[in-house]
Amino acid sequence: MLYYVIDAFTETKFGGNPAGVVIHENLNEEFMRKFAAEVRFSETAFIKKIDDKNFEIKFFTPTSQVELCGHATIASFKALLDSHAIEDNNSYFMKTLAGTLSVGVNRSFIMMGQAKPKLGKIFDDYDYLSDLFKIDKSQIGSINFNLVPQAASTGLWDIMLPIKTKDALYALNPDFKALAEYTKINTVGGVHAFTLDTKEGIAESRNFCPLYGIDEEAATGTSNAALTYYLFNNRVLNKFNQEYSFLQGYSMGRPSNIITKLINKNNPRVMVGGKAIILTKGKLY
Fold it and tell me: Looking at residues 256-266, what average pLDDT do you find?
């Protein structure tokens, strides 16, 4: 079995978000859970080939299995390219707990489809949120748009938390134990805090997911896909078939660039993608 460590949503080693990737034939889920807990990446992907065009991928955090993971998907298809299991400039499908999703590989740029986008509960408990993140509640929202905290999903539910300024975004200091309980009660994976106060890209984000053993992630494809749909519904974004750039990980010293695209104007869906770089690979015994 081949085992990789790959930095996703970056072209620079030690940038982006690292993921473990295992290409296997018949591992059981108990081994997957234990291995993910051992290596302790925010997500480890386990890939099983179904046929030349279809792959089953299971995703594990250090504490549990999750339905989908964007950066680990990007890492997975980088590993499949490297191992010659797939060819560049082709389209494939991956079977996940979030459904069967399409993945396109074009000049080593990997773009993945997402599950049907959804919006959920609005969170108007600003006093509690400000205490949870240790910021003034006046910093929740957007300077130029009427944005409110709301759950969104393209495969995984996160709370989209708008923050007015980049300084306030960087100042967020969550109570991780309380945040894990808050997200558990509200049946979401984590909180995707973002600001439109950026000179590059559409938004800059920070993602917190302590419920699944991840205090903060440097790049989250599914969350930025959900953010794309949230911004579309709030009339911040309105163009289809155009690439949008989202920044993440800068506050952690792991700069990441996540690309999203709105498609199917009559039935909007979101694509998300980026590049990846292999840090190491070897054999798993």
Answer: 97
